[in-house]
Amino acid sequence: MSDYFVHESAYIDEGAQIGTGSKIWHFSHIMSNAKIGNNCSLGQNVLVSNNVTIGDGCKIQNNVSLYEGVILEDYVFCGPSMVFTNIKTPRCEFPRNTSEDYLKTLVKRGVSIGANATIICGTILHEYAFIAAGAVVTKDVPAYAIVAGVPAKIIGWMSAYGDVLNFASDGLAIDSIGSKYQQVSAREIQQLK
After folding, report:
1. Sequence-separated (6 or more) residues with CB below 8 Å from residue 145
2. Which of 35, 36, 51, 180 shows the greatest Cβ crowding within 10 Å of its Cβ?
3. Are 115 and 135 in contact (CB under 8 A)?
């Protein structure tokens, strides 16, 4: 008996690794060489392709496809129907479908990606970034940044806890649980210890 849950309609290919306490729901497909961490939840109709890594505690909502080249660190949230790409210039007539063609996309710890957002391959979403619903991310997103729009632009900052940060004149902000942040530059903040 396995130490994770797989709905009877889901497909798990031989060689896939699924961590303790994870749940794979209706009509999902986990391909060989995919690695899913502990205590993850993958909703209905989720595809996890070959050589994708998903860290611990991640929540992947319905209708999300994680294509080869995507790496999610721990506690990443992927909203319903958000999209990852893995090739910048696809063509049907001249397919690019080998591992060398796929660009890596790294989603670091604690990132939240809203419903219907699109993440263009080759980008890094840094720790605790917040991607608004419907945003199209075409370049790296700094840690704690809130981005929105097409293409996505920084519209504010969010704490690891999930509070929108309002910086005082001294460049400091405190979230609702008492964590302190300092604005280092227009494109960077840091959490203070």
Report:
1. 126, 129, 130, 154, 156, 157, 158, 187
2. 36
3. no
Give tens-digit pLDDT for 53-93: 999 999 999 999 999 999 999 999 999 999 999 988 888 89
Question: CATH number for the 5-167 domain, one of 3.40.50.10420, 3.40.30.10, 2.160.10.10, 2.40.440.10?
Answer: 2.160.10.10
- pLDDT reading at 1 higher than 70: no
For 101, phi and psi rounded to 5 degrees?
Answer: -80, -20
Can you tell me which residue has the tokens 């996890």? 48
